[in-house]
Amino acid sequence: MGMKVVFQVAIVAAIATSAVSADVLTVTGGASIQSVVNRAKSGDTIQVEPGLYKETVYIDKDNVRLSGIIRDGKWPVMDGENVLNDGILVSGHDVVIETMHVRRYMGNGIMTQGANNFALIGNRVEGPGFYGIFPQYGKNGLVAHNIVSGITGTGLYVGMSQNIDVIFNEVFDNDGFGIELENSSDALVEGNYTHGNTVGIVLNLIPGLPIKKLDDIIIRNNFIVANDANTGGDTGKTSASVIDSGAGQHPQGTGLLLNAADTTTVENNLFRGNPGAAIFVTDHHFGQMFPVPDPQVDPLPDGNRILRNTFIDNGLEPYGRTAQLLKVLKMEHAPSLIMAGRGRENCVSAKHAVTSIGVDNWPECPAEMSSRDVTTKRLPERVVSEPLTLEQKGRLTYLAVCTGCHSYSVRIQGPPMIAARAPYMGGDPKVLADWISTPTKHRSDYPAMPPQNYLPPDVRLEVARYVLEMLEQ
Q1: What is the DSSP code (8-state) at residue 386?
Q2: pLDDT band at 135, cuts 50/70/90?
Q3: What is residue 282's predicted lDDT score, i.e. its pLDDT?
Q4: Mean pLDDT across the chain
Q5: d(Cα 339, Cα 362) in Å, to the nearest integer?
Q6: DSSP strand E in 191-332: where?
Q7: Running DSSP on this structure, what letter comes out for residue 288?
């Protein structure tokens, strides 16, 4: 695993408790976790004994804790056997998932879908799934002390979420990105160790999604080291999985990529041994990464602050898009900081000491500028969530599940939704709902869609109705 980093930080997750008495339910080795989840009520803790579990667990209840028991070094292991799509899926609020070992699922290891006040703590997730840990469309969450490796796409992915702390995780040897935040706001990414990924940390503003901004994020005190996956001996060779994940469209070998992100603070990180630039800032026009623009999305990176980082031995073996750019500029090695495209009101500390291109118009950041007073981006009070109608569940499920792979008009992991829904327009939504449950592969240039048969039939039908009758960019 290379350099070993041990973090000793106390994590206190404030999860609301129910007025009813709480029970501790136990799952013995090899029994069904889902059957115990089905019996749980609000406030209960489900303790999972060491053993092997081959199932998908779906938690649609509020205020439940799923806690793995580690005994004599043995964990509870959930094994998808390279067949099952999803490991643990959460749509309930105030849910904690801790110390579970999740491996060999083809889609998501641990995913929250529209869940608020979540905590994902101390889990181990191994590939080859597309996302290792994936909180999507949630508020007020904690992702801490997890170890994620061997993922085909992104190891730790935060999608369209607000007030999230991503702290003290190790994310390594993933074919795509290490840590990615997509169309999210008010997040703290601190104390993480990312190495051996295609890009270490990515802030990615993707057009065509319901949330149209990516801003107010702190990237601080991280170890961003040797993110050199897929370089091989030839530099520039990229696996199909990387292209499918979107990593092939971005400057690989980069430590930190800011793609049209706004008001990001990048402070006191260690960038070491990344073959491309340590920090790469780009707008949407660079390389036409998103050829179909979204008129509601600002494609420029604005108000970003690069403060007092350490750069060691980066840029020595640039490849892919970075190498192409440097070839035009007749440069052999990548500088620490690259700006490709345009942006407004960005700044950098100690500008004279940071090798760079494209930042001539960036001023020096004020000496006193710092994020040190921000200790968390989570809210002081839990988010109160009202009971959802079936129509709301359909829309929320679309936002939480479908938009992980489908934009409205832009290709990401799956085809644009405007194209994917076209064969079903004007027909019975049940036809699309049935296909969502057991999809067949229609397009040779996209990966097969995983079955969503864990969703209740009435929710699947409502998702289909939303897609066909109400969805707009």
Answers
A1: P
A2: very high
A3: 94
A4: 88
A5: 10
A6: 193-195, 199-204, 215-220, 223-225, 254-259, 262-267, 270-272, 279-282, 305-307, 310-312
A7: G
pLDDT over threshold 90, residue 116: yes
CB of 22 closer than 8 Å to CB of 43: yes
Query: Hey, what's the torsion of the CAs at 311, 313, 314, 316, to 10 degrees?
Result: 160
Over residues 142-146, mean pLDDT: 98
Phi-psi domain of 207 (left: phi exceeds 0; alpha: psi -120 through 50; beta: other): beta
Residues 136, 160 contacting (CB under 8 angstroms): yes
Q: How far apart are the C-alpha atoms of 64 and 47, rounded to whole Å?
A: 11
Q: Is 223 exposed, middle or buried (0-12, 13-18, 19+ CB in 10 A)?
A: middle
Alpha carbon distance 60, 378 (integer Å): 22
- Is-contact 110 133, C-beta < 8 A? yes
The share of the chain scoring above pLDDT 70, in percent, equals 89
Question: Which candidate, 177, 252, 259, places its Cα nearest to that of 217?
Answer: 259
Kindly state the average pLDDT of the residues 402-417: 81
- How far is it, in rounded angstroms, from Cα 265 to Cα 346? 10
Q: What is the DSSP letter of 344?
A: B
| Residue of 471, 372, 377 whose CA lies nearest to 429 | 471
Over the stretch 53-70, which tens digit does the pLDDT of each residue have? 999 999 989 999 999 999
